[in-house]
Q: What sequence folds into this?
């Protein structure tokens, strides 16, 4: 293309790169590494972004619809925005309007009453703690822990450290979180705190699943599981299944459910970037 054409298209990106690295990308090869999602395909969805599981929609980079197995480009961000702003508001509302569950669900339904009571109890508990730490501080701490020990590369020892620390963060959260305001108004601090309760559960499960899957495959790269050349080493004989973890309550071990994968035509192979 020539330098002038590259400057016309990507000059601002090259300028930012030079300011960050103090290297001229026109003269020195750029130091770029792929993020984990660049190596992964997405879930199959129809034109409504619904998967093969009725009522389960996959959005943005979680589906294959616009990018297939390659998301190496800024357009991946636009897919998430387009799906969230323009597609899902129409398709999910249409799905719900067709009443796929047949049985009408009103506010008096026992399950609705149970969920409302559970949610109200949790919000009241969050407001009553009155501690000295903001929800954002716990969010940052949990995020840094996950980035360090459950990121693109994981180790057995690191995951065990995370699994030891997350319950401690949860205990401290319920003793020290401070949520100003009330539950009778628009309260973003309360919303953040409520989400962190879920983030703690999800983070613990992610680390547990990563520890259990002692192989390198897809989004899992275990440093103990690699070839002499540093490539990801698969263990399909032990992990050739789809897994789903069943939540059994906070502080209780989840239950692993497995469904064996059967490959009749295309079989898994070792990935190599050589």
A:
């Amino acid at each position: 293309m020539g330098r002038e054409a590259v400057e016309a298209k990507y000059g601002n990106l090259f300028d930012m790169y030079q300011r960050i690295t103090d290297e001229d990308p026109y003269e020195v090869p750029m130091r770029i590494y792929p993020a984990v999602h660049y190596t992964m395909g997405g879930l199959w969805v129809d034109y409504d972004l619904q998967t093969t599981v009725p009522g389960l929609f996959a959005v943005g980079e979680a589906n294959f619809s616009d990018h297939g197995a390659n998301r190496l480009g800024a357009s991946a961000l636009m897919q998430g925005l387009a799906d969230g702003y323009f597609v899902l508001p129409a398709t999910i509302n249409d799905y719900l309007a067709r009443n796929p569950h047949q049985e009408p669900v009103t506010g008096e339904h026992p399950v609705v009453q149970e969920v409302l009571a559970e949610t109200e109890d949790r919000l009241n508990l969050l407001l009553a703690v009155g501690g000295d730490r903001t929800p954002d501080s716990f969010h940052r701490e949990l995020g840094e822990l996950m980035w360090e020990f459950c990121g693109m590369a994981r180790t057995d020892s690191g995951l065990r450290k995370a699994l030891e620390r997350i319950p401690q963060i949860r205990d401290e959260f319920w003793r020290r979180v401070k949520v100003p305001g009330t539950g009778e108004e628009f309260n973003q601090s309360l919303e953040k705190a409520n989400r962190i309760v879920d983030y703690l559960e999800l983070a613990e499960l992610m680390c547990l699943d990563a520890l259990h899957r002692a192989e390198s495959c897809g989004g899992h790269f275990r440093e103990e599981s690699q070839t002499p050349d540093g490539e990801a080493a698969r263990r399909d004989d032990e992990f050739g299944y789809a897994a789903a973890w069943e939540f059994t309550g906070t502080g209780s071990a989840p239950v692993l459910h497995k469904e064996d994968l059967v490959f009749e035509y295309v079989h898994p192979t070792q990935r190599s970037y050589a």
Residues 75 and 113 are 42 Å apart (CA to CA). The mean pLDDT is 88. Strands lie at 241-246, 255-260.
